[in-house]
Amino acid sequence: MNYKLLKQLYKIHSKSGFEGEIITFICKWTSKNVPNSKLDLDWNTGNIYITKGKSETYPCIVAHLDQVQEHHPTDFIAIETRDLIFGYSHKERKFCGLGADDKNGIWLALKCLQRFDEIKVAFFVSEEVGCIGSSKAKMDFFEDCRFVIQPDRRGSNDLVTSISGLSLCSDEFIKDIQPQMFGYKETYGLMTDIEQLKEQGLNVSCVNLSCGYYEPHTDNEYTDKKDLLNCLRFIEHIISNCKKTYRHKAEYDERAYLNFAYSSWDIYDELFEIIREALLADPTLTPSDIYAFYGTDYPFTMDDFAMVYEDAMNEILYEKQEDWQ
């Protein structure tokens, strides 16, 4: 697999509200590499809608254009090893965030746009600061979609089928996509564009998939190529085999909501480890910095983040005391 396109996407810094360069790149790339597609750029929002082929119904992939990282050194380079891709600045002698959340999703969408004859793709601005782009989506674009896939989840095997108790897809869709073949398992998730679309009346099944990025929103972010490729194969499998429309009306599932609520400690543990690693890498980070990085990814308030931050800092100090003794 050639990852040249992915590394080109990583090279573009596209923090929320400043997505112009990546919008231009995607429009030019699509015009050159998928000339038989129809591209609609919404000049009011920056959202991009692409349709390839003529069909009664289409598979659809969505991803967001923005990234959290505020800084991108001028000599940023995406370094590819046998297994991983990570960002680095030789001038600053430090690792740099890739923006793999969600440039991995963009790459997956563009790869499928090249491969399949009939497909729809949408890219939204400013997901990281509250799903601003998808909140202004052209919903008629999705009226002839069979299902919607968003690859916008860290890790390798999460199949997000509910968000904060809001069910995203039908049992029939979950059965037909055969997630176990690719090592994926159902789980709940947090805010992202498909949740926003469902709340605005999207009436087909949606899922959010892990797409191989790790330590998102930090300078230590990296992509595991094997996990990213597995996600691509899973999406290709779904598109190739799921030819009917999987209707689903958004509703709050009491069981899913309770599972989400009772799993708060699991979320706490996950956030604790992320904050701890971030502080070890940069002890100058404040609770406000942490909240700016992760506030849209976790169902916690600023006070909650401050509490987890304090817990993580106390553990780091305790471990240092142990080392001194």
How does this structure look, described?
By secondary structure, this protein is an alpha+beta fold. It has 2 domains: 4-256, Zn peptidases (Aminopeptidase, 3-Layer(aba) Sandwich); 263-324. Helices cover 40% and strands 22% of the residues. It contains 11 helices and 15 strands. It has helices at 4-11, 20-33, 100-115, 132-135, 171-177, 193-199, 225-241, 254-262, 264-281, 287-294, 302-324; strands spanning 37-41, 48-52, 58-64, 77-80, 84-89, 94-96, 119-124, 145-153, 158-163, 166-167, 185-189, 206-210, 213-214, 222-224, 251-252. The strands form 2 sheets. Strands 1, 2, 3, 7, 8, 9, 10, 11, 12 and 15 form a 10-stranded mixed beta sheet that branches. Strands 4, 5, 6, 13 and 14 form a 5-stranded antiparallel beta sheet that branches. Strand 9 (158-163) and strand 10 form a beta hairpin. Helix 10 (287-294) crosses helix 11 (302-324). The longest helix is centred in the last third of the chain and has 23 residues, at 302-324. It starts with a helix and ends with a helix. The model has no long low-confidence stretch (mean pLDDT 90).
